[in-house]
Amino acid sequence: MTLQARDLAWETGGQPIVKGVTLRVPEGRFLGLVGPNGSGKSSLLRLLAGLRRGQGGAVLLDNRPLSTISRREVACRLALVEQQTATEVALTAREVVALGRTPHRGAWETWSAADHAAVAAALKRTGMTDRADQLWSTLSGGERQRVQIARALAQMPRELLLDEPTNHLDIRHQLDLLKLLRGLGTSCIAALHDLNHAVAFCDEIAVIKEGALVAQGRPVDVITADLIRSVFEIAATVSQDPSTGRLRVDFLPD
Ligand SMILES: Nc1ncnc2c1ncn2[C@@H]1O[C@H](COP(=O)(O)OP(=O)(O)OP(=O)(O)O)[C@@H](O)[C@H]1O
Ligand SMILES: [Mg+2]
Predict the structure, then answer these.
(1) pLDDT value for 87
(2) What is the Å distance from ligand 1's center to 17 Cα?
(3) Would you list the domain boundaries of the chain?
């Protein structure tokens, strides 16, 4: 058990946003976080990453409260790819990816072969090698998203948190990324909107509604027509291919 939330609560301006969430990111597996717009996914990810402190409960990393661990140690362990990133940065794609190595180097250490290798591997895995020397500000939306993911990979985290990582990606790059995340062997939690992607690629799914966790478990146990109706307020059917075991969600018109 590496990263978990225990009865975690966060409010802002007197409004409860995250309401007593208890959740575990299974070690080395891919956990999908699904829920409607405004249900608290991004807020929860920021709490899990330690960018924000809750008023109640705790985030635990290896059973230690995250709040007692140094920023540097957290940054060596855990990477977050946020939903929106600043766009006016005068850096090349490679330099943005290289930022992921910062926590691993002492203040006076120069670049090591391992740093260079990590950056090159991250660019390659996200298909961004050819664009490495292009200025970040001139990249397309999908290319920027892939560079942010490459930065997180270069960080070589043991826990990887991603907020809608498939945003801006074309369908092939969406599928490539989900495959990559599933195959990393890193504990991974990603907010996703596409339920068919979540059931196809995630080992487990956590469902959040109005700031509260309503379910966590294997896709086949969690993603049911009843759950989709109660959480997303839409009619759907969930079917399973008897030979492959693959789940499929179909949304029904009113
Ligand atoms: N700093 C803040 N101040 C005020 N309200 C906030 C703040 N951060 C989040 N909220 C509110 O908390 C709720 C949850 O927001 P959050 O961004 O976590 O949702 P989400 O599930 O990620 O939604 P989406 O699917 O649209 O990305 C929203 O109603 C949002 O307006
Ligand atoms: Mg969000």
Answers:
(1) 65
(2) 7
(3) 3-251
